[in-house]
Request: fold
Amino acid sequence: MADMSVGLERSNGIAILTIDRPPVNALSHELRKLIAARLDEVARDDAIAGLVIACAGRTFVAGADIEELGLVRHPMLRDLIDTLERIGKPSVAAIHGTALGGGFELSLGCTFRSAIADAKIGLPEVKLGLLPGAGGTVRTTYLAGAEAALKLAGTGDMLDATSARDLGLVDVLFDSDLVAGSVRFLADRIAAGNIPSPVSSRARPAERTDDGQLAKMTAELCRKARSSAPEQVAKAVRNAIDLSFDDAMIEERRLFDAAAASPRFRALRHLFFAERAAAKPVETVDAAPPRTVQSVAVIGAGTMGSGIAMAFANSGFDVVVRETGDAALERGMKRIRDTYDRSVTRGSLSREDADGRIGRVSGTTEAEALSAADLIIEAAFEDMAVKKQIFAEIDAIAKPGAILATNTSYLDVNEIARSTRRPSDVLGLHFFSPANVMRLLEVVRGADTAPEVIATVLKVARRLGKQPVVVGVCHGFVGNRMLQARNSQLSRLLLDGADPADVDAAFRNFGWPMGPCQMQDLAGLDISWRNRKALGKVDLLPDRLCENGRLGQKAGKGWYRYENGRDPKPDAEVAALIEELAAESGIARRTVGEQEIIDRTHGPMIDEGRRILEEGVAARASDIDVVWVNGYGFPRDLGGPMYWDEHFRTSSQ
Ligand code: T1G
Reply:
C-alpha cells in the first residue's frame, strides 16, 4: 500500500482526486479500493459540487493492472466506473500522458474529459488478445459512433488529444495547467447549469451504421493484426448499437471474460512483460550512466546501411553515411531519398517530415567525417577481413568514448573488437532488414563490452523505437542461429516428399506470415549460398537452384517462379529437380504431412534455443521469444517459440 495513494483535495467546492501509483498508475485491486473509498467520500460530502480526477507522475491511468487480469477482485473496474457515474455530481477526467485501456474507460465514467495538448488516449486491449472489459466499447460507441469505436478498440492504436476531441471523446484541451484548468472548466459548467447526463444515459448514436462497412473494417483489422481478436471488439460495438446499455455491458463482459481465459491472452501477456524485461538486462543494473549519443555515422550505404541511416534520421539523430566511392554513396543516398518519396506518395509521411529526415542524413567518402560521431555503425560487406580492416581504420579516427558497432548478422564480434584498441567500446548492433521498419535489434555483447556501452545503446534503441534484446557472441547469435536450425531439414523434407508449397502452407497454417521457401525467395537464395560456400558447406537442393540462376524473386525464379514479379507459383522445373535429386540420393518419396513438417522444422529450432540458453548466449527463454516475434514473424498469439514449446506444442511433436 505504501507505493500508492489516492489523494483528495477541495478547491471552491470542486474535489480533486489524485491517483498516484508509479510508474503508470495501473489500476490494481488495491488502487481500485482506494479510489472507491474516495468516491464514497465525495458522494457523501454536500460541500462538494463536482469532481476532477487526475493522476500524479508521467501519465493518467495507463490501464488495468495486466498482472491481475482475469482475477475477480471487487470492486471490479466496471463497477467502480458505474459508481463514478452515479455519485450524482459532475466530474472531469484530467488526462495527461497516455490514458489507455481501463484508464480511458475510467475517464468515460466521468461527465467530461479534459486533456493536455500532447496527451493520448487508447484502447489497446486488442493487442493482448482482449477487448475493453469495463465499458470501453459501449461508451466509446455512444460518444463517437460505431466506426470510430471499432477503429479505436480494433486497432489498439493511440489517438492524440486533438483527434479525440474532434471525435467527441475529449471535451476540452489545455496547453498548460491541466488540473487548474479542469477545475475552472467544471466550475463554469456547474455555474451555467450546463451538465450533460452520464455517458451511459445518453442516446445511442442516431446514424444506423452499415453492417457491411463494419464487417469490412473488421476483416481488415484482423488481417493487419494477423489475429481474430478484433472480431470480439466488433461484436461488442455491434451490441452497443443493437442492445440496451445494460445488455450491451453484460455482453461486453461475457466476451471479455472468455478472452481473458484464453491461451492467446496468456501468450500475449507473456510477451508484454518479456519485451520489457529484455530491454532491462542484468548487465546494466550497476552500469555507469549511459553516454550521450546524438551524432551517428553509418559505414556502408547499401540496403542495410541506408536502412539504418533512415532508422536514426526517423528518430531525430544526425547521421553521416560513409562510402568509399562516390557512385556507391550516391546510390545509397538516392535509395534513402526514394524511400522517403514513396512514403510521401503513399501519404504515410508529409513532404515536410520527409525533407526533414532527408536533411538529417549527409553522405561522405572521407573517413575523417567519422571523427565527430558518438556512435559508428559498420554495415559493410559480411566478410571478417573487410570488417577487421574497417574497425582498425575507424579505431584510429573515432573520438575517445565513441561506440563502435558492427551490424554483422553472423560473425564473431569478439574477433572484430580485438582488431581495435578499444574492445570495451565495441559491440554488435544487429538490425533486421528493412532496418528502418523492423523492430528487433539484437544487441550483441562482446566479451569486453562495457556495461555502460550496453546501457547506452539500449537508451538509443528506445529512442529508435526498436525492441532490443541483449545476446552473446556465437555464429548467428540467437535469431539466425535458430533460423539455421529451423531450416536444417528443409531440403531433406523436400526430398522426402513435401514440395515447397506444402512446406510454406504448413507454416502459414501455423501462423507464420510466410513459409521458409517463399522467405528465401524474397531474401535471395544467394545469401545463404554464399555463406555455405564460405564455410565449405553443401546443401544440394538450394545449391543447384542457385547454380541454375534460380536466386529467388529478384531473378524471377527460385523455389517458385514469379511471372508478375511477386506472386509465387509452383514450378515444374523445381519439382523435377527435387525428384531427380531424391532419386540420386536413393530416397523413395512419400507423403509428408503438415505435422511432420512442423515437427522437423520447429523441433530443431527449439533444441537450438535450449542450447543457446545453456551456453548463456540468451539470458532468458523469454528473450528468445522476443527475438522471434519481433524479428522473424513468429505468431505473437503463440507467445514465441520457447513459450509455444512449453504451452502449446502437442505431445506428438
Ligand atoms: N499493467 C501493469 N504494468 C504495466 C502496465 C499495465 N497496464 N503498463 C505498463 N506497466 C509497467 C511495465 O511493465 C513497466 O514495468 C513499466 O510499467 C513501464 O512500462 C479493463 C483489461 C503506458 C505506453 O495495455 O502501453 O486496461 O519493467 O516500459 O515505454 O479494459 O507501458 O518498469 O517493471 O512500457 O513509457 C491496457 C500497457 C491494459 C497499456 C508506457 N493498457 N502499457 O510505455 O513504459 S488491459 C495497456 C503500455 C485493460 C481494461 C483492460 C506502456 C505505456 P517495469 P513501459 P513506456
